[in-house]
Each structure stands twice: as C-alpha cells, then as structure tokens.
Amino acid sequence: MSDKILIIGTGAIGGFYGALLARSGAEVSVVCRSDYETVSRQGFQIDSHALGRWRFQPAQVLRRAHDYKDCADYLILCSKVVADIDRVNLIRAGLSDKTAIAFIQNGVDIEAELLAAFPDRVLISGLAYICCNRLAPGHIRHLAYGKLTIGALTPDDAGLSERLRDLFIAGGGDCEISHDIIASRWQKCVWNAPFNPLSVLSGGLATQAILQNQENFVREVMEEVCRIAAACDHPLADDTVDINLERTRNMPAYKTSMLLDFEQGRPIETEAILGNAIRAAQRHRIECPRLQSLYALMQLRELQIHENRPPD
C-alpha cells in the first residue's frame, strides 16, 4: 500500500520534493494557495538539471488542510517561517491519529512551537540544500544540488524518519539522516545568514557576485554563526566555512529565496534566519556585530515592504 503524504506549502521546495515522493510511488496530495487553479488543472512542471523534465499531478489539490479526504502517513510543512503564518493551525486539520509531522524550513530555534503543540507526534526536522526556484504557477526549476537532511526531534521507534528518507531516495533524491538535526540547522544557517540578506541589501545580486566582491565579509558572518552554534553546544566542523564558500563558487548564479520574496513584496524570513541566531548569541553572550548589522538593515527593508504594500 502506498504511503500517503500531504504537503502544505507547495512553492519551489514543496513542489519539487513532493514530485520526488510521487516518483517513489507515494500518494502525494498538496495544499496550494496562489497556485491552486493552475495546479488543479495541470499539476506541476518540474525542470531539473539532474533529473530531467516531468509533470507531477498530485492525488488531491486542496486550498486548505481541512479539505483533505484521507489519513496521511506524513504531513510535510514547507511554508515560510514568518510572523503571518501560524504553522500550528495551518497543519492541525490535516492530521490523523497516525500522521507524522515533518517540516522542511529555514531557520534556527524554530522547533519549540511545534514541539509544544504536538508533544505526542513523531516530529521530523528537515533542511533542503538546494538551488530551486518557482518560475511561474506550477512551474519549478531545479538548478543545482538538492540534498535533504532530516532528523527526528522526538522518539521515533517505528523508524518513520528512515522510511521518509527511503522514499526520497527512491524518487531520485539525495537524503540523509542527521543524528543532531539542531546542529544541522546551524550548519545551514552558516550559508543562509550572509547570502540571503546580502542578496536583498545589494539590490538583487546573485550569490556568486556577492562572494566575488565581499568574500571576507561573508566569511566573517559565517564564522560568527559557527561561534554561536558552538556556544549552544552544537559545534560545527572546522572546515564548515571553507566548504560553504567552495560550494557557492561552484553553484550557478542563484537568486536566494529571501531575494525572491523581497522582489515580490512577500514577508521575509529575517527573524527565523537572523533574529533567532542573534537572540541565541545574546543568551550566551557571544559578540556578533556583523549579524546584528545585517539584521538591522533587513528590518528596514521589511519596513519598506510594509509601507509599499497597498491597503486592504
């Protein structure tokens, strides 16, 4: 019997990884908001540099989790982590008694509200190391990389994390289990903390241009994140910064997710990526002046979005 999966938040990340799960034989349904009409009619078009082109037609296309007409084995949340999205209420109606919750999202210290709301669930944290963009409604382009790192935050005696990993791999993906998923989140933040805000603050530069012109500053931001992670008892490998810089040199010119959100006037994940890291630094009395500067400037950018937004 096929695994039944409900994905909430089907932008570039949710659509791409949902398509991989469908290729594995899972029965994948999606909750769409802005792309509902297009996806209902024709599904998703996936253009991948590594896996080719194919169309993914979800089993059910829904406007909200409440409309799901089945019992999901996994509910996978791929929404942004921003103030105007209530993650708990977004997913609650899509859960059955047996549903495990996974979330593939950016940021550090974002687990607490989900752990508090669903203490008896298997809760799986996930991180996507991928260059992937939504080109148009229902149209997703995969440019580079694609590895998923997942790990259970709660007891997982039934091996649901391993089962989910196997499904991603069977669909053609690259997925691994982390036995310290919190450290893995800090590792992802090492890249996100400089490149996401700098792509916005530079007026739209791609990652390679940022690195070519400001490598020393990027390195210093990354080193601050590493110091915070170590203070939080999640030390990262000594070569973490060098590996992140080298991978960025080797990836194609890429617009970050934060830049795309800014350009389209959407809320930005400033708090999840920068604010939470700085608050962790303050708790442990770690100096992070570059992160604090990026945070202050991004708060001004968010104010710009708010002031330019048309009235309701």
The topology string of helices and strands comes to EHEHEEEEHEHEEHEHHHHHH
The major sheet is characterized as: 10 strands, mixed
* CATH architecture annotation name of the largest domain: 3-Layer(aba) Sandwich
- According to CATH, the fold-level topology of the largest domain is Rossmann fold
The residue fraction in helices comes out at 40-55%
On the 0 to 100 scale, the average pLDDT is 95
Low-confidence stretches: none
Structural class: alpha/beta
Total domain modules: 2
What spatial form do the alpha-carbon principal axes imply? Answer: globular
**CATH fourth-tier homologous superfamily of the largest domain:** NAD(P)-binding Rossmann-like Domain
* Total count of helical runs of at least 4 residues: 11
CATH class of the largest domain: Alpha Beta
C-alpha end-to-end distance: 47 Å
Radius of gyration: 19 Å
Walkthrough of the structure:
With 312 residues, this protein is of the alpha/beta class. It has helices at 12-23, 36-42, 87-92, 112-117, 160-170, 181-201, 207-231, 240-250, 257-263, 270-283, 289-308, and strands at residues 4-8, 27-31, 44-48, 52-56, 61-62, 74-77, 100-104, 123-136, 139-152, 175-177. Strands 1, 2, 3, 4, 5, 6, 7, 8, 9 and 10 form a ten-stranded mixed sheet that branches. Helix 4 links the parallel strand 7 (100-104) and strand 8. The longest helix has 25 residues, at 207-231. The N and C termini lie far apart (47 Å). The relative contact order is 0.12. The model has no long low-confidence stretch (mean pLDDT 95).
